[in-house]
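As a warm-up, study this chain.
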Amino acid sequence: MKAARTKKKNAPRRDWTSADLRELKKYSKARTPVEKVSKAMKRTIGALRVKASQLGLGLGHQR
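Now compare it with the structure written out below.
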């Protein structure tokens, strides 16, 4: 018998507001570490990196 896998519950998706985008740009310009940005904005590091890439912003090691 296979052991039952426990599925991790995903956080609900949140759309990016214009205020979120302004905040992300501010953190990028200030060169704030991505871990701190993640905690401050309550978003995953992956979500922040994807959105920053879409906007052409540097974030973390991608500067």
